[in-house]
Structure prediction request, 421 residues.
Amino acid sequence: MLLLASKATGAAARRADDASELKAASVGGGGDADLEEDGEEAPKKLGLPLVVHTWPWTQAARAGYAVFERAEEEEARGGGGGAAASSTLPLDAAVAAAERAKLDRCDGTVGPGGNTDELGRASLDALVMDGETMRAAGVAAVRVREAAATARLVMEATEHSLLVGEGATEFAASVGGFARHQRLEDEVSDARAASWRRASCQPNFRREKEGLHLRPDPRRHCGPYHRRREEEEEDEGGEGREKRGARNAASSSSSPLSPHPSAPLPSRLSHDTIAVVAIDALGRSAAAASSNGAAHKVPGRAGDAAVPGGGGYATPFGGCGSTGDGDLHLRYWPCVRAMASLGTGKMGPQRAAEDAVRAIAEREPGYVGALVVACSRTGRVGAAAHGWRFSYTVARKGVEGGEPQVVEVEPLVVERGKKLS
Prediction:
């Protein structure tokens, strides 16, 4: 496995020649050089097909790329099943990569035995999207291992775009034939949940709302939580309004994905989304994503990995995948923004990724997240991150025999206080 380290983005990097990229040299900002962005020369097309996804889980990229290899081998044997014959190949590859990451329980956070909610229960979110037809679907809080495959069934066997919870689990079992109510936890995830509870369930994703007083205090204690009247709190000798307000202000940044500015950069272990983009030899694209969601999430939470446009997006121009603070992604839709930028032809994938990440970071100083963007016209890939050190994996034709390559991406430095444009 070759490790590619990203360097600072600059005009020289954007003009790097294709030969250096094909030799796996580092080029600007964590992505392929965007020659088209300067308008000085037409971009040369890099190797297709390709599979690219968030995080350094090379076995997932290998599983996705193998779908393309098998199709080409079948076509070479005269079987007619090659890239030109099947419009589902990109989706097949994207789903294969996402499912393999869960099967391998990459980093111990995604898939069975991965992140759990406040109650110590694991559930999965997933989405799929076909870039040619723009059809898409997702599932949230589903209790089967085959979450991405279930999302694909929702897209292909229903008119709906999102199924959630028990209904999604029942659909997976009855239509997909997947085992329902599987135990998605193991000894390791149980131990992590127990350790978190011993730490008084801190940090968590709860926050105070004026006039809503929970018992016990979620900033100090574990649940279960229930609402109480303010008079009851005062009668029981609790804190007054002024003290309570000061406490709330002091604890307003205790989310696991919103560290204090002086704290070390978060690890990917605090969040686990695999988001995949696959592009076939004809430039057809698809996206898939799968996640257990943020560790110790509120039960019932649906993240961006369940929502097309949130954790992943695909269009005729290419595809995008995201990881990090899914709740912010569902507010700002960075993949939709990146693909809109790519579609205009005024930005390549690197600048489109950076633009979408900056748009969030300029308004949300605590934002932790990353995007990877692939262009179906040129085969180029770009990526950007904020708040943590990010890496992605890419396997493409013509580079190291299709073996996955890992690219490291340093976080962007962003000025605060700008308006979203």
Notes: The radius of gyration is 22 Å. The first helix runs from residue 11 to 14. The mean pLDDT is 82.
